[in-house]
Each structure stands twice: as structure tokens, then as C-alpha cells.
Amino acid sequence: MDDHHQDSEEEYSSDTPPDALIDSSAALTYWSNIPANVNGMLGGYPQISRIDLRGSANFLTKLRRQASLSSSSSTSSSTSSGLPLLSHATDCGAGIGRVTLGFLSKVCEVVDLVEPVASFVEQIRHGNEMAELREKQKIGKVYQMSLEDWNPIPGRYDLIWNQWCLGHLTDNALVAYLKRCVRALKLDEESGVGGWVVVKENISTDSEKEDLYDSKDNSVTRTDEKFRSLFQKAGLKIVLTELQMGFPKKLGLLPVRFYALKPDWKKE
């Protein structure tokens, strides 16, 4: 839904799978009442935004250098790391565009955004924070819809960035969504050159290694094992993964993990 950083979950003793408790309409109602600012997006922890954005930029730089991939989707412009700009990315569960403003717009020529909450979309389309990006035509299409309803254009993206939003999808809906993301990547099946799906999400620290349901915003925090299982079901392989570092320990926040994913052609 946006960039909200959960710091607590509730455990349920019921045999009902945690993701079965997700109520998308209730989640939309919840987020529609959250202030359309960075404090609202980050659940009252605006001080982590800079660390978060720097971590994301570092992860993408490492990913691109590891893959030795940029020439097929680049222009003459370059990023602060010296890598050519990617041509087209999308910010999924974009909130007010915090990740686009502070990170994606600096590494991509154009960024599309997907966000269902009307007040957040208003900030993207008309807010002062995003005005310069709009003027420079860095903002592409803005889709006011849920990820379940988003059917991206095939072969459009170098990068599909998902951050603090996938907990609002059931396991089955997430697999279906990731399969649509695969089709939306720029791909060359023979060479393996193409784009990435990146997932950046909180990780459950439950002692029983279970996913945890948060009744406050109707979301699920998944275990690392669950994410890996769902990625495999979606036909994706992990090409790089690491933890976000640098959040102050005194805040007691959940661990956050990056996953860079590409289609697993061998499974086909």
C-alpha cells in the first residue's frame, strides 16, 4: 500500500493461515485515514527515511555491478554511482512517492507509480514535493489501483520495485502478482539480459517461524522461508539478497530484507 514500516504484529492461535485474515477493503480504509506525508508513510519513524533510501541505492548499485548489466537499457545519462540510468522503473505501493523522489528518480529515466489510496495519489500528481519530477517528466504513468488489479504492460520495465506493500496480498494473490511482474520485465530469454523485480519487506521474527498478521492495517509479515517459497512458485529466482542495515536498534524495528529476483528460465 505504501512505505509503512511496521514495528509490531499480533500472533493468532487460530489454525487459519495469517494471510486469510487480510481484508483489502479494510486496509484501504485504514490507509485512507493516514496523513499523506513521510511520517504517515513510515508509521511514525520519519528518521529512518534517509537510511532506507541510501540502503536501497546501495543495493541496486551492487546488483547492477554484479550482473554487469546496463548497456541494453541505458542512455547517455548516468547515476551518481557512474552507472547509466535505467530507462523505465515502477514504484509499487508507492504511497506519496517517497521512494521515487529519494531514490528511483535518481537511477531511472522514468518511473511509473502504483498506489490505491486517493490522497496519496493526489500528492504524486499535484503535491509540491513531486513538482520538479513532474516538470522534468520523470514521472510516467500513475495507476490509482491495488496491486491485485494492476496488469502491467508486457516488456515495459527494467526494474519493478516493491517495498512495504506486499503484506497486503494473500499468498496466492502475491504469486499471481509476481507472475504478472515477470511478464512486465524487459527480457531476453536466450541471453538472460533483462530487468529485475525487487522486493524489500519486513521479515517475521516469530519464534515458531510463522507469518504474523497485523490487525491494525490488515497485513501479514512473512518469514524469509515463506518469501522464498512464493518466489519459487512464481517462477522467480533470487540473484541477490541482503538485510537493510543502519536502522537504530533502539527503535526496535523488524529486520528488513532485500530480494532481487529474475525469471528462472530453467523452470520453464
Structure description:
- By secondary structure, this protein is an alpha/beta fold.
- It is built from eight helices and ten strands.
- It has helices at 24-32, 38-41, 49-67, 98-107, 118-126, 131-135, 171-184, 224-233; strands at residues 74-78, 84-92, 108-114, 139-143, 159-163, 196-202, 212-214, 219-221, 236-243, 256-263.
- Strands 1, 2, 3, 4, 5, 6, 9 and 10 form an eight-stranded mixed beta sheet that branches.
- Helix 3 (49-67) runs parallel beside helix 4.
- The chain is globular.
Short description:
This protein is an alpha/beta fold and 268 residues long. It is 30% helix and 22% strand.
Query: What series of H and E elements makes up the topology?
Result: HHHEEHEHHEEHEEEHEE
- Coarse morphology: globular
CA radius of gyration: 17 Å
Taking the sheet with the most strands, its summary is:
8 strands, mixed
Supply the number of helical segments. 8
**Strand proportion:** 15-25%
**On the 0-100 scale, what is the average pLDDT?**
90
How far apart lie the N and C ends?
Answer: 31 Å
Name the poorly predicted regions.
69-76
Helix coverage percent: 25-40%
State the total count of DSSP E strands.
10
Structural class: alpha/beta
